[in-house]
Amino acid sequence: MSPESQPVTLADLQRWFSIERMDTYVRSAQATGCDVVDLYVWNGRVSKALLEDVAHVEVLLRNFMSVRLAKACGHDDWYRDNTRFRFNSSRTSRFENSIDEIERQIRYSGKPVTSGRVVADMSLGSWCFLLSSRLEQTVWRALRDPANGGMPNYPSRKRAVFESHTKTMRDLRNRLSHQEHIVLDDLADEQRYLDKQCANLDWIARAIDPKAAD
User: Fold this and answer.
1) What domain count does the chain have?
2) Which InterPro entries match (predicted)?
3) d(Cα 191, Cα 207) in Å, to the nearest integer?
4) Averaged pLDDT, 150-174
5) Cystine design at 69: which of 21, 29, 78, 207 (Cβ 3.0–4.6 Å)?
6) For residue 81, which of 89, 73, 71 has the smallest C-alpha distance?
7) Cα atoms found within 13 Å of the Cα of residue 22, Cβ hemisphere only
8) Within 13 A of 4's CA, how many CA atoms are on the CB side?
9) Does residue 2 carry a pLDDT above 70?
């Protein structure tokens, strides 16, 4: 804030961001005894701090998966190997369509289409799809195969558990990316929620590489 800046009030926030959005913070401020403007700032800072960790874990996850899938099929554009991995059923080609759209966007930006750019642009939802039960016999098998690098830091190798943790990260990322509130009316509940989310990110990173988690 510059020396010339004027103090921000609740009325300002309501005018800038809508009364409906601020009602959530008003209720939380009343329940916790906090100043509503301070609470709004706090929510933004905590959200961005969490997004930083989510970003690291998301990139760690996609690199971990991409390396193993590429090794399993012998080429970097593994996401095009529907014959091996059976991404698309006879009723849907949503994954294939998402890859087509990514490649169109890359070409539109004037850059050459490379596997690295495609993988980097795949959504976290796509990675969750790759961990789904319908791909357990193809994608998950390739991920846990020691010949492809395996999962030495995840000895149980239970797909559903790994998928659940990844979905929790996806839901958090979506919530934070859409600027939803994460402050709660009860400070103890808020602390437990934040601790749970941080523990989940740590779990995913540790299952991939404990050093990365640390």
Assistant:
1) 1
2) Abi_system_AbiD/AbiF-like (IPR011664)
3) 24
4) 97
5) 78
6) 73
7) 16
8) 0
9) no
Cα–Cα distance between 103 and 111 in angstroms, integer?
10
Residue of 78, 68, 85, 46 lying closest to 209 (CA atoms) = 68
In a 13 Å sphere around the CA of 177, the CA atoms on its Cβ side amount to: 10
Structure tokens at 178: 């859409």
pTM confidence score: 0.90
CB within 8 Å of 47: residues ≥ 6 apart = 176, 179, 182
Within-domain flag for 108: no
Where residue 75 falls (left for φ over 0; alpha for ψ -120 to 50; beta otherwise) is beta
Domain annotation covers residue 102? no
Contact 138, 192 (CB under 8 A): no
Query: In terms of residue numbers, what domain contains 65?
Result: 10-86+123-212
- Looking at the domain assignment, is residue 99 inside a domain? no
